[in-house]
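Archive record:
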Amino acid sequence: MSSVGLSSIDVVWSLLAGCFLAALCVHQISRTYETSRLHILFQDLIRYGKTKQNLKRDDWLRVFDVPKRCFWHFYAVSVCWNGFLLALNLNLTFQHQSPPSWLTGIVDILTAPQLSTLLVQLLLWVHSLRRLLECLCVSVFSDGAMHLVQYVFGLGYYIILGLTALCSDHVAKGTGSLLSQLDCFHVAGVGLFIGASLLQHQSLVLLARLRTGKSGAVETLAHREPKGGWFELVSCPHYFSELLIYISLTLVFRCLSLTWWLVVLYVLFNQALAAQLCHELYISKYESYPRNRKAFIPFVF
């Protein structure tokens, strides 16, 4: 990929990471201005689901609400788009064809077969498919909402992410067959990906069981205190596991991709903000909730 293109992608992810870090800091500071309209507008933009339901908003702000159950749209887009990019890259790799002109204008697909890139694309697709199935078959969504801006951003996020995966392995050029490129970084990355995915699935199942009976039928849409599994360590293990999943993809890139490290930085601040909002809700809502429990990363934050 050209230096200009690489710089542009790095800038995009740096800006996104910086925006969410700033949002996390502003949230901590703005608590003293809870009655101001600017504060409410800011909270309306960063909150979704259960953390948004008790926010005292003007009626005109509710016009921009999108049901949180529409989360599955994000993963449906990701499965289709990243599946298409994966199939395209596999075809280019094994059929030795040139990429379409519209794609070469965005990224430069490496001419030599890249095991790291193909693995990351495959794992991204598997992750998206699992999350889509969980949204449709496991999770029990309440009447919570997200902002229209969050919805539009979520739809575009996985499109940008897929293109980023295609052009992140610009440091280590693949030589020889795909199998000959396999090393300990790939094995460690896939291993961490599987472990983090299982942790996230277990956490989402525990959250769903808070609203279902033994038969699996939905009994309530009320929010209850999460217990069991890694919820005994942090308030949001599903967010922590999301971070681990992206770190696992960094391992697959042999930890050499600055671009993907910037993606991880964005995920860190994005998930930290969401976890902090959930953590504050649990502490304020449940008197018995452990005050010393961390929000996001065990024993750290």
Q: What stands out?
A: The chain has one domain: 9-285. The CA atoms of residues 27 and 42 lie 8 Å apart. The radius of gyration is 20 Å.
